[in-house]
Amino acid sequence: MLPQPHLSALLQTLSKIDLDSLPAGLKETISLALEHAHGLDESLSEEQLMGQQVEELTLENELLSQKLNEANQAKAKFVSVVTHELRIPMTAIKGYSDLLRTGAIGSLNEQQTSFLNIIRTNVDRMSALVSNLSDLSYIETGRMKLNTKSFELPTVIDEVLLNWMPKIEEKKQSLKQEFGERLHPVSADRSRVAQVLSTLLNNASRYTPEGGSLSLRVCSNGEAVRVEVVDSGIGIHEKDQPFIFTQFFRSEDPAVREYPGWGLSLCVARKIVELMGGQLSFQSAPLEGSSFWFSLPIGGDDEPEQTR
After folding, report:
1. CA distance 124 to 121
2. Contact at 8 Å (CB) between 299 and 184?
3. Cα gap 82→88, rounded to integer Å
4. What separation, in Å, do the N-terminal and C-terminal C-alpha atoms of the chain show?
5. CA angle 288, 211, 282 (to 5 degrees)
6. Nearest to 27 by CA among 37, 17, 42, 41
7. Interaxial angle between packed helices 265-275 and 190-206, expressed in degrees from 0 to 180 and rounded to the nearest 10
8. DSSP 3-state of 273
9. What are the tens digits of pLDDT across the range 268-277?
10. Cβ within 8 Å of residue 154, ≥6 positions away
11. Strands (E), 62-212
12. Burial class for 114, CB neighbours closer than 10 Å (0-12, 13-18, 19+)
């Protein structure tokens, strides 16, 4: 096929020919050639226009991608600065409120103790928000580093429960533990696994009324170890379930709004589990409780199996 400039030149040359002066056979041949050439010229013009439009769209997408990347970097920097600046005063507030609560500078009456407990509770909420924002920023910018090692999961579970059992017992809730007979070591970041499990236990206890029941189940299928936290709480409405891992999502259900929260912890927990090569999901129904579970890859073949 001729390039478009050559084709245009050919068309100009053929157009100058006096077709009426030519023999009938040659006239018909040249007429068909002209018609075909005009069609090719139009096709090439359309193709050139489409190519130009594609180039423009490609350039536009590259510019948008660059702007989006710059915006994400700016957001990450802002979050990093804010979380750092917030941690400093929160640490001081925590420390001094704990000193006051222990009576380090004198005894407190009931009202003063109540006020200090409110301060500590809200500082803990702010601390959780700051930590989640920081983790989310590190994950989204690819800066989260995992210390992946092979370890026995029950040891981490025991550590987490040591911290959470007093809070569960405070609400007069029961916790049943079920462990598979043979559990493989997992290959993951120990501290991050503890963080994820703490998130699930916290939510299970929070959204379960006083006197309710919780279950912690752990099993292995030879490829992964699965940890499941089941509660008898308020459950999750079907319309809210597609958004449960969305950043800052909180249900409009009044039963949910009774409990404080930021709508970040589950989002962060799922992203952390996925970074470790696992999955995090759930099943739930209103007034029937919820079951949240996550899986982690097993450790190396040279590691001994854990029996419990």
Report:
1. 5
2. yes
3. 10
4. 76
5. 35
6. 17
7. 150
8. helix
9. 999 999 999 9
10. 179, 183, 218, 306, 308
11. 148-151, 174-179, 182-183, 186-189
12. exposed
Cβ within 8 Å of residue 249, ≥6 positions away: 240, 243, 263, 267
Return the ∠ at Cα 149 (arms to 163 and 282), rounded to 5°.
55
Question: Could you give the CA distance from residue 233 to residue 281 in angstroms, rounded to a whole number?
Answer: 17
Phi, psi angles (nearest 5°) of residue 304 = -70, 150
Domain ranges, ordered by start, for the chain: 1-144, 148-307
The whole-angstrom separation of Cα 230 and Cα 249 is 21
pTM: 0.70
Give yes or no for a contact between 276 and 265, defined as CB atoms under 8 angstroms apart. no
Q: Which fold has domain 148-307?
A: Heat Shock Protein 90 (3.30.565)
Judged by phi (left if over 0) then psi (alpha if -120 to 50, else beta), residue 277 lies in left
| Gap between the Cα atoms of 197 and 188, Å rounded | 13
Rg, Å, the chain Cα set: 33
Give tens-digit pLDDT for 66-119: 777 777 677 677 777 777 777 788 888 888 888 888 888 888 888 988 888 888
